[in-house]
Amino acid sequence: MIKKLGKYTLHLKDKPSILSFASVAGTKEASGPIARYFDKIIDESENDKSWEEAESTLQKTAFEIALSKISKSSSDIDLIFAGDLLNQCISSTFALKDFNIPFLGQYGACSTMAQALLLAAIMVQTNCAGICAAVTSSHFCSAERQFRFPLDYGSQKSPTSQWTVTGSGCIIVGKNKNLPRISDVLIGKIVDFDISDSNNMGAAMAPADVKLTPYLIKTKQ
Fold first, then answer.
1. 3-class DSSP state for residue 78?
2. Are 119 and 104 in contact (CB under 8 A)?
3. Which partner for 53 in 6, 48, 159, 178 could form a disulfide, CB atoms 3.0-4.6 Å apart?
4. What is the DSSP string of 133-165?
């Protein structure tokens, strides 16, 4: 059962659980302060013929690792929500096509994982699916080609330009009261703060963080 709390928040009575999760990243991320938390570091230049293919490898690997942690196979997954930053969610499509799982592509940019996880939890809560997977990925080089200047151009980067992460994450959602659970979900609204610098993604996303942080502090208290 799903109950509305206020105007927008949905309360999930059974509180679907996070059965498993996994994250993989590229070599640059491996030099950062949270490298020890990644399940696997992949040299994205080793075996794949293109950056887009490398991104698919990241996503496929994250999904397989998450499954292995709970001794599940792809046949145990009823539905998969996955997305990336590229046209037609091509990285997700090629990463997951051989698993033969019903697939719903997601395109929410930086909110893709939250969106996929929200939908997976709702599907499990309503018994439309027993176990769902939420997956997303990005790759610095494929994102540059998609949104900015292909690296082949050798163009000068803007002082406000961001570095898109090379990595992927997967969360498996089902029912298990002994594991972390999802009790409520809230779908965000589009808010335009008139950020005109298309390279300055930090400024574009900062307002969302400012609005969310007081809520997180309050709930922890």
1. coil
2. yes
3. 48
4. EEEEEE-HHHHHHHHS--GGG-PPPPTT-----
Q: How far apart are CA 62 and CA 17, in angstroms?
A: 18
Residue 174's closest CA among 131, 211, 214?
131
Helices (H) and strands (E) in the chain, counts: 5, 9
Which tokens in the block code for residue 99? 């698993």
- Kindly report the number of other CB atoms within 10 A of residue 167's CB atom: 25
| Sign (positive or negative) of CA dihedral 107, 111, 136, 185 | negative
| Residues 65, 171: Cα–Cα separation, whole Å | 10
- Between strands 2-5 and 9-12, the pairing is antiparallel
Which comes out higher in pLDDT, residue 9 or 208?
9
Q: What separation in angstroms does the CA of 124 have from each of 40, 64, 77, 118, 143?
A: 28, 20, 11, 10, 32
The C-alpha atoms of residue 135 and residue 119 are separated, in whole angstroms, by 12
Token readout for 163 is 């570095």
pLDDT digits (tens, 9 = 90+) for 9-65: 999 999 999 999 999 999 999 999 999 999 999 886 667 788 889 899 999 999 999
Q: 220 pLDDT exceeds 60?
A: no
Is this structure's pTM higher than 0.85? yes
DSSP state of 117: H
> d(Cα 22, Cα 151) in Å, to the nearest integer?
29
